């Protein structure tokens, strides 16, 4: 289980289907259904402000990309 703490939220990344950037906010779409009685679809958490910035930084450091950054888990800035 991979847990990432952003703001007041701790996210189990193993349950995430997608991260969607919308302006300054980031939607975290979980690969689990909405709670019983809620609208249809997958559960989505919207992060904004500092929590969104922290998550985007973590994603940029740890996701495989075409930029050539090595995959791995790091919270260090790009300069370090």
Question: How does this model look, in words?
Answer:
This protein has 80 residues and is α+β, with helices and mostly antiparallel strands. The strands form two sheets. It has a three-stranded antiparallel beta sheet. Strands 1-2 form a two-stranded antiparallel sheet. The longest helix has 14 residues. The radius of gyration is 14 Å and the shape is globular. The mean pLDDT is 83.
Features:
alpha+beta; 1 helix; two-stranded antiparallel sheet; 80 residues; globular; 3-stranded antiparallel sheet; 18% helix
Short description:
The protein is of the alpha+beta class. It has one helix spanning 49-62; strands spanning 3-6, 9-12, 16-22, 25-33, 42-47.
């Amino acid at each position: 289980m991979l847990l990432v703490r952003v703001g007041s939220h701790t996210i189990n990344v193993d349950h995430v289907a997608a991260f969607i950037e919308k302006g300054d906010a980031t939607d975290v779409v979980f690969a689990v259904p909405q709670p019983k009685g809620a609208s249809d679809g997958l559960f989505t958490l919207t992060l904004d402000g500092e929590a969104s910035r922290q998550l985007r930084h973590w994603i940029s450091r740890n996701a495989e990309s075409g930029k050539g950054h090595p995959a791995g888990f790091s919270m260090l800035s790009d300069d370090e």
